[in-house]
């Protein structure tokens, strides 16, 4: 029976929902983030606000929250010519993938998370990747996650479970899941404190939270929130 988990936690809507789910299931939950030279570097500050407010507003979870880790992955930014790591216009590439795709990002994230989990004696790695509302990133697919789970378990001789609670739900359902886990208080926290915008905009406030309102991440979050509100 698994009891200790590590959540890949960027401080965005998806990873915050995953953190809430992990806190509802496991006895001990730690978090990890990666500084890879992302343009939306502000997310690394926003995530600390989210963690602090979860501890303050959800006492039933506060006692389960363990250490938070921040890993330097600047080498990824050095080798990635993408609109998330360079000052470039968002566009589709000839490959059919958007230029927001950072090759190898989730593969490296999971490898380092597994190494950290090994040291910290954590059995479950929770990540917010999704095939339903996504841009076609190949490192977010269910097949990729299953392959990584097998490779990491074999390579470290430790049986890991890579949990992907958002894999088959859309953004509206992600908002709904947050509501089921933490009620309106968690929805309000996600709106106010989490960060999704690729441009790092923390100035413009919308019904769904802060962001430029025009980048792919903002558009996806806004559409999901509108559908969630219409269904409630």
TL;DR?
The protein is 47% helix and 13% strand. It has 232 residues and is of the alpha/beta class.
Whole-number tally of structural domains:
1
The CATH architecture name reads: 3-Layer(aba) Sandwich
Strand content: 5-15%
Q: Globular, elongated, flat, extended or rod-shaped: what is the shape? A: globular
Q: Pick out the low-confidence regions.
A: none
End-to-end Cα distance: 35 Å
- Average of the residue pLDDT scores: 89
**How would a textbook summarize the main sheet?**
5 strands, parallel
Counted by DSSP, the helix tally is 8
Spatial order of the strands in the main sheet? 3-2-1-4-5
How does the helix and strand content classify structurally? Answer: alpha/beta
CATH class type: Alpha Beta
Task: Please characterize this protein's 3D structure.
The protein has 232 residues and is α/β, with parallel strands linked by helices. It has one domain (4-231): Rossmann fold. It is 47% helix and 13% strand. The chain contains eight helices and seven strands, in the order βαβααβααβαβαββα. A five-stranded parallel β-sheet has the order 3-2-1-4-5, sandwiched between helices. It has a two-stranded antiparallel sheet with strand order 6-7. β4 (124-126), α6 (142-156) and β5 (161-163) form a beta-alpha-beta unit. The N and C termini lie far apart (35 Å). The mean pLDDT is 89.
Topology, element by element:
Elements: E1 4-8, H1 13-25, E2 28-35, H2 43-57, H3 59-62, E3 65-72, H4 74-79, H5 105-120, E4 124-126, H6 142-156, E5 161-163, H7 171-193, E6 205-206, E7 209-210, H8 216-231
Helix pairs in contact: 1-7, 2-7, 7-8
